Amino acid sequence: MRIGLACNVKPADPPGHLPEDAFEEFDSPDAVAQIRDAIASFGHDVPVLAAGPGIVDAVREERPDFVFNLAEGTGGRCREAHVPALLELLGIPYAGSDPLTLCVTLDKPVAKRLVASERFPTPAFRTCRDVSDAEAVDLPFPVIVKPAFEGSSKGVRLASRATTDGALREMVRFVTERYGQEAIVEAFVPGPEVTVGIVGNGSGARVLGMMEIVPKTMSNDTFVYSLEVKRDWENQVSYRVPPALPAAVLAELSRCALGIYRLLGCRDFSRIDFRVDRDGVPQFIECNPLPGLCPGYGDLPIMAGAVGIPHRALIGEILGHALARHGMVPA
To answer: How confident is the model at residue 21 (pLDDT cuts 50, 70, 90)?
Structure first.
């Protein structure tokens, strides 16, 4: 089968006027090569389809039978929907979630409202269009300030955890002016951070693994999984699979993750992030239906490896679920 790999590749020389983390979600050339090789190892021809305006011509030229979509897109809160929307327009089946789910999950306030509507716990939040809106934020400190529609800790710094009005205003100004979008101000949950990996569809969706992000240099009461931490993760955190939490909390994490995965319409694979509060209640933070798949670095491959699933097998399982969903292989 001819399976195109749609992705955004990090530029070798990024423009200096953009935020330092502008391309944080994009894949490195080495990651793309490893994912491509994993798909090809199952006997497929795998052309790489670089996301962006040129992908329209690339798809017409390469004529893939199927697309393994990892494209983050560029520009605006609907950017992750661009490639799957194009594929649907052209009638080309693809792996991963559809445009609506990708839009909903990238917009953190929208995702949180949907999750809360089904009574899954999520921290209280407010949104700020500019620094003047910070005056109306009525949440108790500490709070965390983030861009409303970014991923991969873009716009999240150690200073994003604000404990004073002045710090809150400064971080709202930083987000709204530097990233050109609303800031979401969320009640800070001072407990363990846990990410849950899920694969599959419908009643067959399953928790692949759970991973606790354990800070090495600070306590969970102040820990922020920020850009600084992620770029120095070997010195800043350790990854614990499974998390060192009571069985009842792990069961509730599984229940919430699967429920949210289905509620938001995720398909084939996703990763869902939580903080566990002082009462042991998992608080939904965000859902990532395009989690990184780079071996040895992406959270989902790390979880898979810890439970005995090699990278090639993980890629094969995701691809198998997607092909089965389209009726292209037996379920």
So the answer is: low
Which one, of 253, 295, 297, lies nearest residue 272 by Cα?
253
The CATH architecture assigned to 124-187 reads 2-Layer Sandwich (3.30)
- Lowest mean pLDDT: which of 34-43, 241-250, 295-304? 295-304
User: Which tens digits make up the pLDDT trace of 64-98?
Assistant: 999 999 999 888 899 999 999 999 999 999 999 99
3-state secondary structure of 69: strand
Give the CATH number of domain 190-325; options: 3.30.450.20, 3.30.470.20, 3.30.70.890, 3.40.50.1220.
3.30.470.20
User: Are 21 and 154 spatial neighbours (Cβ–Cβ below 8 Å)?
Assistant: yes
- Evaluate whether 110 touches 104 at the Cβ level (below 8 Å): yes
Classify 59 as helix, strand or coil: helix
Q: What tokens were used for 44?
A: 């497929």
Where do the domains of the chain lie?
3-95, 124-187, 190-325
pTM score: 0.94
Are the CB atoms for 322 and 268 separated by under 8 Å? yes
